[in-house]
Task: structure prediction
Amino acid sequence: MYTYEINVGYSVVDAALHMTVPAILDCFQDAAIFEAENGSITVDYLYGRNIAWLLSSWQIVIDRRPALNEKIRITTFPYDFKGFLGYRNFMVTDTKGNRIISASSIWTLIDTVKRRPVKPPQEMIDGYELAEKLDMDYAPRKIALLDEACSTVTQKEFQVRRYQIDSNLHMNNVQYVRLAMEMLPEDAEIRELRAEYRKPAVYGDRLMAVARKAGQRHQAVLEDGNGDIYALVEFTLSMTAERFGFGYE
Result:
């Protein structure tokens, strides 16, 4: 288990002075890397063996977002391995020890040369300290895509920029969520986020974002020009945001 503390800075808050959802995801990403770099399965260990953990899915439940200058604790730990999949929890707690954000993630170990999933060797598994998984209502890894009967509210096109590329030479997983959030109403308050990553986008790719809504489910599908999906992001908004609809246009 790995934990670190921060004070919420001005550069990561929104107009209401609360920490943005992408900033929360950045903290989770950093926590996983910090844990790795302080253990034996470092980034260099993975790169030296031509393997990498790629994020397959997120589920994030937000009870409240931290406020400007609030001290918070970010914690992460792996809790299971199955085949080529790794399972990891994250959470944010306040100074009173209250859990205000809970998250579950699933990762796929990839052979970066052969471009296919591989099972982690026992040496790798032994290098991680497993903990008991969080008590939360776990959603399936795959998100059911809303069918064509659901009305398409709006579409926007984005191009992958250099600043969105990470060390795996793909668009970083948080950037997909940032783009998907562009399809939400301006005052949307996200209570739950799910993301499923299907294929990586690289520098210069053009992504078409298609926003759909059915009941409480709000989806942003990020796809290429041929209908193949890069990522599918689903939001559940607070009731306050629900009444304003989905999409600007």
Remarks:
- The first strand starts at residue 2 and ends at 7.
- Residues 241-249 have pLDDT under 50 and may be disordered.
